[in-house]
Amino acid sequence: MTTPRSSVHLFTDGGCSGNPGPGGWAFILRHVATGKELVESGAERETTNNRMELIAVVRGLEALKRPCDVVLYTDSVYVGKGLSEWMRTWKANGWRRREGQSWKPVKNDDLWRRLDELVSSHHLTYQRVAGHSGHPENDRCDELAVAAYQKYLR
Fold first, then answer.
1. Half-sphere exposure of 143 toward its Cβ, with a 13 Å CA cutoff?
2. What is the pTM of this model?
């Protein structure tokens, strides 16, 4: 007999002051049945917006202790399309992408590879939210991510 999977909502955001520049990430992981939340954020001195968006998702999924049904809420089209459209092809092509007539490594492939590992143990659904649109959890993640990188702006 298998144990039913827990349902969780993962809200994420990442951002930078400059791109590249100091960046921050944040996630809110909410257990649907209990409403219990885990909130984390962090920052890097020199990074890109896309890396911060990815790290937020990776850190959120890494916080899960067992396979779950995960609804990922993100305003990042890069993360969403990567998960739903591009990653399968990148993986099949050895984590490379076509650029003109040649092959180039996928940008941020270290994080995409880690995300691929993490997603394989969960049932993940991607839900895009509009950034800075009054979505409470997205706005909260944005505030946490910005606050996290402030220490590098001094």
1. 9
2. 0.95
pLDDT at 1: 56
The overall average pLDDT reported for the chain is: 94
Of 70, 69, 72, 71, which Cα lies nearest the Cα of 5? 69
CA-nearest of 12, 2, 107 to 62 is: 12
Question: Domain spans of the chain?
Answer: 6-152
CA 125 centroid distance within chain: 13
Catalytic residues: 13-14, 53, 75, 132, 142
Handedness of CA 90, 92, 109, 15 (dihedral sign): positive
> What topology does CATH give the domain 6-152?
Nucleotidyltransferase; domain 5 (3.30.420)
Question: Do 79 and 15 contact (CB within 8 A), yes or no?
Answer: no
